[in-house]
Specification:
Number of strands: 3
CATH class of the largest domain: Mainly Alpha
Strand content: under 5%
Mean pLDDT: 87
Helix content: 40-55%
Oligomer: single chain
Number of domains: 2
CATH architecture of the largest domain: Orthogonal Bundle
CATH superfamily of the largest domain: Intergrase catalytic core
Low-confidence stretches: none
Distance between the termini: 74 Å
Largest sheet: 3 strands, antiparallel
Radius of gyration: 26 Å
Strand order of the largest sheet: 1-2-3
Order of helices and strands: HHHHHHEEEHHHHHHH
């Protein structure tokens, strides 16, 4: 608005259009990397592409949602323009309301200026690469964290906020504050994760009940932050030549649960705390990494040679059955 010399009270759809155009062409300063990896390139080990140098379509849509909410708030109190400058689609907004699961879902077009987002299946870490990543951890704290991530399916921020009073050793479960509802919820974790946690706490001491479980290893006593945990994963990626993220650990947990025939899709939804079953069903798709491994095994199979019963020559078989 400042660049267009227009105050926010007089903004129209034209100004919002200019904003979207700028976001689609501008470079995102957070994409600058010191590692020398070019934005948008595909990592051959993981099959994942690094983030492009511009703003992602989902980021642009999020910005439009925030801007629309801002103007809706001020319009409610009689401030700003009379009409929300962010285009809306009434049919699409109606889909966000209550919907009976017995009724079919109806599609609605995107609102104007909204970006199309590709429906890509979530990328999970194959077992072989997971073993390498786990082996690249340098301390029991980091091993315990990865074990909890891949067995509980907790989000990165949820697990980092775990307090000592919310660890149930006997029940092999933890309680985390869910990102969406902000409600304390129980989730199970593997015995291996609790074993690494016991080793970590045995080395660094048992925190008080109300204190965070995960703490920084160096400097003054303080909780482990999201950026610090991401740095741990970045160092492992630099060593292994991969580009895994913390959220890939949740994807891996979900894919493992969805691939277990002993667990129903509804049970997996409950553990992952997905609001909609359709979100959980995305993990039932074929994983690209596993498909590539299976296809390589298929290509490596020896060619079956044709054998004929004694008394028949290949020329006779060719004449009767063809090539």
């Amino acid at each position: 608005m400042v660049a267009l010399e227009t105050s926010w009270e007089r903004a129209t759809t034209s100004e919002v259009t200019v904003l979207v155009g700028w976001l689609r062409t501008a470079r995102n300063p957070q994409r600058r990397r010191r590692s020398g990896v070019q934005p948008g390139t595909v990592n051959l080990r993981t099959g994942k592409a690094t983030l492009a140098e511009g703003y992602a379509p989902s980021t642009i849509n999020h910005a439009l949602s925030v801007l629309s909410g801002f103007y809706s708030f001020h319009t409610h109190y009689g401030r700003g323009p009379a009409v929300n400058p962010v285009p809306d689609q009434a049919g699409r907004r109606a889909l966000l309301g209550h919907h009976s699961p017995l009724e079919p879902h109806h599609l609605a077009p995107r609102a104007r200026l909204r970006q199309k987002i590709a429906d890509r299946p979530p990328r999970s870490i194959p077992d072989q690469l997971w073993t390498e990543l786990f082996g690249a951890m340098t301390c029991d704290r980091d091993r315990a964290l990865l074990a909890f991530y891949v067995s509980s399916g907790a989000r990165a921020s949820e697990l980092l906020g775990l307090r000592m009073e919310h660890v149930d050793w006997a029940g092999k479960r933890i309680c985390v504050v869910s990102k969406g509802s902000q409600v304390l919820e129980e989730i199970p974790a593997s015995p291996e994760a609790f074993a690494y946690l016991a080793v970590y706490l045995g080395e660094h001491g048992l925190p008080e009940a109300t204190q965070p479980v995960w703490r920084a290893r160096h400097g003054s006593p303080r909780p482990l932050t999201y950026s610090a945990m991401r740095a741990v994963l970045s160092r492992a990626n630099a060593k292994l030549g991969t580009n895994w993220t913390l959220h890939d650990l949740r994807h891996s947990a979900a894919a493992r649960m969805a691939g277990d025939p002993e667990l129903s899709i509804v049970e997996v939804q409950a553990v992952l705390r997905h609001r909609h079953l359709s979100t959980t069903e995305r993990y039932t798709r074929v994983r690209v990494g596993e498909l590539i491994d299976k296809m390589q095994q298929h290509y490596a199979k020896p060619k079956i040679e044709r054998h004929f019963t004694s008394g028949y020559t290949p020329e006779d078989i060719q004449a009767v059955f063809g090539g």
